[in-house]
Amino acid sequence: MPPKSIDFYFDYISPYAYFAWRNLTALAKQYDCPLYAHPVVFGKLLDKWGQLGPAEIPPKRKWLQQYCYRYAAINGFEYNPPKFHPFNPLSALRMSLKEVSGDDQHQVIDTIFAAGWSRGEDLGDLPTLISLVEERAIDGEHLSQQIARPNVKQLLVNETNMAIELGVFGVPSMIIDGLLFWGNDQMAHIELLLAGKDPLDSKQLDTPERPRAIDRRAFKNRGQD
């Protein structure tokens, strides 16, 4: 049986995506499974599913900061978020397309993630991105020329639309054997699946959803009587 593959959907704007990437690369190597990276536009996912981003909810934004600093301390790496947040991630995402970065894709992703979320670099600034990848002996000027092309811009649109079609609603998301895992806290579950020890009975997923007893919008409209 061929090794399972991991499809990783991410946007640099999410610290959780950085945390997941740090673990996924090691898991993919440990279980000898291909890791396919798909840059997507998180904002488009939010628009599609009618959600707010974590940073758009003030108490959640405060909680996020607390969580991230604690997570990094527990896991032994530096957490220093990007110079500006939110930032425009489009240039970074386009650079990270397989069709643009080629065999250097994973190295480009490593570089941008670490520079933004551990070194506090400005990931919305194209000259900064060029400089960062050139530190790793990657031709940043060539990448910057590629991402200005209309067909490359469309590739990112296509990746995002394809993710939506697959049911991706947030980042990071990982799809393995048709199962979607969401969030950097899913690594233990992913490892169980990769090790052939997943306790999930797939038949349970075919069980019809329970009928709804109330609709939140209707409840809001009629008050709390």
Task: Give an account of the 3D structure.
The protein is an alpha+beta fold. The chain has one domain: Glutaredoxin (3-Layer(aba) Sandwich), CATH 3.40.30.10. It is 50% helix and 8% strand. The protein has helices spanning 15-30, 42-49, 58-75, 90-95, 98-101, 105-117, 126-134, 140-146, 150-165, 187-194, 216-222; strands at 6-10, 35-39, 173-176, 179-182. It has a 4-stranded mixed β-sheet with strand order 2-1-3-4, sandwiched between helices. Strand 1, helix 1 and strand 2 form a beta-alpha-beta unit. Helix 1 (15-30) packs across helix 6. It is globular and about 55 Å long. The mean pLDDT is 93.
The strand order across the widest sheet is: 2-1-3-4
The CATH topology comes to: Glutaredoxin
Q: CATH top level?
A: Alpha Beta
Mean pLDDT: 93
**SSE class:** alpha+beta
Write the element-wise H/E pattern from the N-terminal end onward. Answer: EHEHHHHHHHHEEHH
Number of helices: 11
Which residue ranges are poorly predicted, with pLDDT under 50 across at least 5 consecutive positions? none
Shape: globular
The separation of the N and C termini measures 58 Å
Q: Over the alpha carbons, how many angstroms does the gyration radius reach?
A: 19 Å
CATH superfamily: Glutaredoxin
Fraction of residues in β-strands = 5-15%
Count of distinct strands:
4
The major beta sheet can be summarized as: 4 strands, mixed
Question: What would CATH call the architecture?
Answer: 3-Layer(aba) Sandwich
Helix content: 40-55%
Whole-number total of structural domains: 1
